[in-house]
Amino acid sequence: MDTHTLPLSSPKRWLRISVLVIAIGWMSAYPIYMNYYRGYAMEQFTRFEDFKAGKSIFFNPWQYRILSPLIVEGIYKVADATVFNFFDFSKIAVRPDDNSGEKNEQTRKLMELTKDPLFIKYTIVFVGFRFLEHILIFTFAWLFFSHFSSNSILKYFALMIVAIIMGNAVTDSDLSFNTYVDVILYLLAGLVIVKSLNPWLIVPITVVGALNRETSMLIPVVYFFSKLDYSRPFNLFNVLFKNWTVVFSVGISVILFAIIFVSIRFYYGYVPPTLWRVPVGIPMLKLNLFSLVSVKSYMEMFGVIGIMPLICLYYFKKIDRQLQIIFIVLIPTWFLVHFSSVVAYQSRLFLVPSILVFLPALIDLIDQRVGVTQRSN
Q1: pLDDT: is 134 or 244 the higher one?
Q2: Which of 115, 129, 226, 278 has its CA 20 to 30 A from that of 195?
Q3: Is residue 21 classed as helix, strand or coil in its secondary structure?
Q4: Cα gap 182→351, rounded to integer Å
Q5: Lowest-confidence range among 195-204, 274-283, 286-295?
Q6: Contact 35/174 with Cβ under 8 angstroms?
Q7: 1 DSSP assignment
Q8: Under a CB-based contact definition with an 8 Å cutoff, are residues 115 and 93 in contact?
Q9: How far apart are alpha carbons 372 and 249 in whole angstroms?
């Protein structure tokens, strides 16, 4: 994130850095707070223990999303062998405050769970990891947004929107580490696309995504279509195949994704997708679109996507060309798959479209309007 060039000892520079650190820290903490206050973050410890025991409540797909649990467990083991040795966690349990009045359910549950030192230690790791995920999201989002505008105020405002929509996306959700890794990976892929970086970067991004969450299978697909030359519609693939690095990097990415996807399921043993309310497909689509549940879904989704998709569609011809391609390739597939496979009021599932496509499109449109206004003046 850019700052004005000032001497290192300048009080103004240090004040600016201090404000930026406080702002980013506050924005990073807010969605975690909302996860505990409105979501199921308190369930994270139990669900994590179930994952390690190979008995996730929703075995398919949760048990197959192995990256984040492995990272968290690795961090915990390192911390438990080092810094945690300096504290007596048996004395950190939350004590009831006689003057606080009647406790709500979440508070009572927290006080009960904190009697277990293991819960406290894992919660420190959980919160720290989610906080780090947010820092990475804000960093890569800033770099991605910078491609569409050089206006720092506009980008700061966009980051605040990112924090707010992540805070809204907590219904029926634990800390959902894999969801935020997914956002990070898609932002990295977006940077590879808009900055025209080395095509081979898509391979490690896809590999990490395959270990993290099945939705990452669209990363090489989006990248592939972003590299086609649409100005020559009758010669699309001929032009593309002259750039063999794109073809090979995408091909290898798809193959490695398939190998990892199958291998994880072979290791744990394949279990059919867990049924929730109704079967996947048309019944789930009807539930999300035309039922009492759909009312909740629409309201929860509004907290994450707002009316941004409508604005993008209305001004579609004016938004950045690369965003247009990502929109066409990603958005219809993403919404169709999620509306037909899961309950849509789990609005965290729509963070990727909001942060990767809708919000940058609005930044681009606003930047264009500001540019026109400045020229007219």
Answers
A1: 134
A2: 129
A3: helix
A4: 9
A5: 274-283
A6: yes
A7: -
A8: yes
A9: 39
pTM beyond 0.90? yes
Q: How far apart are CA 370 and CA 364, in angstroms?
A: 10
- Residue 287 carries which side chain, given as an amino acid letter? L
**Looking at residue 106, what is its pLDDT?**
67
**Which pLDDT score is estimated for 6?**
46
- C-beta of residue 313 within 8 angstroms of C-beta of residue 353: no
Spatial CB neighbours of 52, under 8 Å, sequence gap ≥ 6:
69, 73
Report the alpha-carbon distance of residue 37 to residue 47 in Å, rounded: 18
Structure tokens at 306: 């707002």
Model pLDDT for residues 319-357, shown as the tens digit of each residue: 999 999 999 999 999 999 999 999 999 999 999 999 999
Cα dihedral 308, 309, 310, 313 sign: positive
User: Residue 111 is encoded by which pair of tokens?
Assistant: 């006080």
Query: How far from 206 is each of 113, 196, 199, 218, 260, CA to CA, in Å?
Result: 37, 17, 12, 9, 10
Query: By the 8 A CB rule, do 305 and 167 touch?
Result: no
How far apart (Å, rounded) are the C-alpha atoms in residues 68 and 45?
A: 14
- Of 315, 226, 210, nearest to 261 by C-alpha is 210
The DSSP result for 27-41, as a single string, is: HHHHHHHHHHHTSSG
Residue 121: name the closest of 85, 168, 165, 89 by CA.
Answer: 89
Q: d(Cα 133, Cα 120) in Å, to the nearest integer?
A: 20
